[in-house]
Design goal:
mainly alpha, two-stranded antiparallel ribbon, 12 helices
């Protein structure tokens, strides 16, 4: 069983390394370069024109490794469908921004509508076809609560929140992919602990793909994942949480994504209610940048926090089961 997990990670990593240079060259030739907003940190203006839509570098290896090493698993196939589905929504958003030069990309109602539909699909499939049930595990207690009919909207909340949280976090070179690497590593062990080798294979393939992508995405990035990648990553890790019944523990495991999202919410509330900002800029990683930290220092610090969150969440799940 563990051999398949290692092979999935290795094949996904190697495939990402092979696809990376081809994708970068092709996207440059097509002039699919990143649009950088002028209301962000001034240092980011130099990144304008860097190839984007680079999520294909890990989505394709994830699909290949999952199909090859867990292709007979309905759970793994459901996870792959959700990941590709969210990636497709992100691709349309990127295409509208980069190719058709529409700065706002896909209209919010269409983007949210697509996310909700995919979330409902996963919830229904999990409950009625994948024997997931509707019980939700409560962290630090080992207790389970049956959400009944509320489980489907709960899954919608988990997936939509996760995809948009990863999207918010994807603002610095290597940040989102690095945090996702730690989250997926935690889910390799959680899946094995719960005797779900198909989910362990999927998580390992995601880990390998992210690691391969980081070779090209570390500062100074040669390519960005775009919404193609960030929405796919959010969908993938949220699906892992749903299919391993660790939706609430996912708040701990993906703690950095939660913190980044909360920083945006608090910033908006503070400005609207008090007329002042809590942070120099939100999401939180920009606050550290504007406080004088180098981009690399911010990323490595957030990686360290992400690793701790993943370890704490892993310990909580496996200790209390």
């Amino acid at each position: 069983m563990f051999d398949r997990v290692l092979w999935a990670a290795g094949v996904s990593f190697a495939a990402a390394l092979l696809i990376g240079p081809v994708a970068i060259a092709l996207l440059r030739r097509l002039r699919f370069g990143q649009y950088v907003r002028d209301d962000g940190p001034a240092t980011h203006l130099a990144k304008a024109g860097t190839p984007t839509m680079g999520g294909v570098i890990f989505i394709i290896p994830l699909a290949v490794a999952s199909l090859f090493f867990a292709g007979d698993s309905l759970n793994a196939m459901a996870a792959l469908v959700i990941t590709i589905g969210f990636g497709a929504i992100g691709f349309v958003d990127d295409f509208l921004q980069v190719v058709l030069k529409r700065p706002l990309g896909l209209k919010a109602r269409y983007k949210l509508g697509g996310q909700v539909l995919l979330s409902v699909f996963l919830a229904v499939a999990a409950v009625y076809f994948l024997s997931r049930g509707t019980t939700v595990r409560i962290p630090f207690s080992g207790a389970h609560v049956d959400f009944g009919y509320f489980y489907i909207p709960f899954v919608m909340l988990v997936l939509v929140s996760s995809t948009n949280a990863v999207n918010l976090t994807d603002g610095l070179d290597g940040l989102a992919a690095g945090i996702t690497l730690f989250v997926s590593a935690a889910y390799v062990f959680i899946s094995l602990y719960f005797q779900q080798p198909d989910m362990a294979v999927f998580a390992a393939a995601l880990l390998g793909g992210c690691l391969g992508f980081l070779v090209f995405n570390l500062h100074p990035a040669k390519i960005f994942m775009g919404d193609t990648g960030s929405l796919a990553l959010g969908g993938a890790i949220a699906t892992l949480a749903v299919l391993t019944s660790t939706e609430l523990s996912f708040i701990i495991i993906g703690g950095v994504f939660v913190i980044e999202t909360l920083s945006v919410i608090l910033q908006v509330l503070s400005f609207r209610l008090r007329g002042t900002r809590l942070f120099r800029m939100a999401p939180l990683h920009h606050h550290f940048e504007l406080s004088g930290w180098s981009e690399g220092k911010v990323v490595y610090f957030f990686w360290a926090v992400g690793a701790v969150c993943a370890l704490v969440g892993l310990f909580e799940v496996c200790k209390l089961g």
